[in-house]
Amino acid sequence: MTLGTVIRSFAAPLTNVRGLAWDGRALWIAQLAANLIAQLNPITGTVIRDFASPGNVGQGLAWDGRALWTTDTAVGVLYQVDLVTGTVISAFATPTDDPRGVTWDGRNLWISDATTNLFYQINPSNGLVITAIASPANAPTDLAWDGSTLWSCDSQLAMFYQSSPITGAVIQSAATPAAGPYSIAWDGRTLWLNDLGTNLIYQIAVN
Fold first, then answer.
1. Is the domain defined by 6-204 classed in CATH 2.130.10.10?
2. Which of 32, 40, 80, 137 could disulfide-link to 27, CB 3.0 to 4.6 Å?
3. Half-sphere exposure of 81 (CA within 13 A, CB side)
4. pLDDT at 98 over 80
């Protein structure tokens, strides 16, 4: 299948999804209006469990192998939370006032800033910036890591991009299946993307 081909889609169980993550077996979503974090069955989209997000405006979601990370755009804070109880493990200020997406590269975190259009790689123990690169998107709302490169979605142009974590150069890109993409996640083989307009979550082929 070619880049961007839809493998499957299902309705998100909650509206206004602003973050996606994959934990090795299931999807997680961050939902803005009710301020919830929920684990989903990736086949049916049904909720397995949920808990309150620690932030006031929760956006972005990442799994680091044992815990979840989520951003609060209202106060510029990044939280690490227990994926069973939702208890906050650690928290620190982000280097930006408009953090949206977050992903884990195996050692460090990346967050996207929708105002400066930058991707920041940050130390997960203290939040200090390691490097920053330009985003290929006009309004990067989320990030995903595939083991060697970054994926991001552009909510203004309805595109998603694979880019170098070193230079930010675009490796490949494609149109999203709908006009309101917001969050993106990598499951080891394919991408997952949610669309705010259709309230659908799509599984997308990358090659």
1. yes
2. 40
3. 27
4. yes
